[in-house]
Amino acid sequence: MEKDNTTAFEVAEAHKALKRNLTERKASNFIPMGAKNIYRNLDEQVRNSVKEEFDGFYERCIAYLDLWENSFGNAEQFSWVNLTKAIAVDWENAETSAEIINSSLLDIPAMKINNDQLFDVVLAEEYLQSNWEHWKQEETTRYAIISSKEKWLRLFGHFKENHIAAPNMIKIVEYAFCLPGTSAPVESVFSLMNNVWTDDRGLMKESTVKGLMACKINTGLACEDFYNKIKKKKDFL
């Protein structure tokens, strides 16, 4: 899961699948084939001891995953945004996500979602279902998976072309994809800051460092290129 732009709901889904897999293996007394061949040749007493070790291994793994699960918060409620099936988008999922966003972003009125105006959910659902088979065929032809981000871009592109407003759905999707699944983005910021705020430049004010970091992280341009890009844009300055 340590990849660029991994979201919290993707990690939550992977975590859930792993926990389910381990639970099923424990219930079925699963032993890897290589170990099973050795296990069969052991005497009964040793086999019982080995089985206890396997059971303990599964129990410890599941217990660890239970502890890790606490860090996801409500991320799993946004797993439908991953669009792993044609019927992923529905009123219940969207309404639950909207309630989470409204309760967690009380101090940001612009992000408030009006549940009574979530009609764009129906339009999104219709678009996904009508294009799902086409996407599957495209994936087969291209030998590549169409990412959930690409699917949403196509959906919102379709809405834009047909002058369909979807402000609520856009807010939900933006919020979901902004939930980081790993600490990699934060770690990259610290690494970049060490390159910017060196011993030779240690007298810079925090506000200056903040500005430099914002430019580097959000634009991908060198300082000089960024300066040349905006120096004539008075409205930006």
Automatic annotation (TrEMBL):
Domain of life: Eukaryota
Listed Pfam families: Dimer_Tnp_hAT
UniProt GO MF annotations: protein dimerization activity
Residue stretches making up the HAT C-terminal dimerisation domain: 157-215
SUPFAM superfamilies listed in its UniProt record: Ribonuclease H-like (SSF53098)
Protein name: HAT C-terminal dimerisation domain-containing protein
